[in-house]
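Fig. S4 source data, part A: sequence.
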Amino acid sequence: QVQLVESGGGLVQAGGSLRLSCAASGRSFIDSVMAWFRQAPGKEREFVAGIKYRGDSTRYIDSVKGRFTISRDNAKNTVSLQMSSLKPEDTAVYYCAVDRVKYRAVISSGEVAYDAWGQGTQVTVSS
């Protein structure tokens, strides 16, 4: 059974940093794109960042470019999101997810492309 467990969320002041981690178990994800999504109160869940299987290609939404960095450690089956220069609008529950298609050629930003999700970790940025 596939399981994803996020950690690292918390309360931080604007301008601060947090590092989110996601530990995957149940199978190896070395062949899958992994991604981070977030859902703010009253809003739909949105794609934040994704990384291809070898870690040599990444994708970010415009609002986090230059501030967030996604990385993965295939030996440990983990994916991380380093978040810097945090803003109040980054406040959300953050989820990691795994692509349902092995070796997908692109990093999809659509939820339907992902079929394994964690329970989420809350990130709150105060102004």
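Fig. S4 source data, part B ends here. The longest strand covers residues 18-25.
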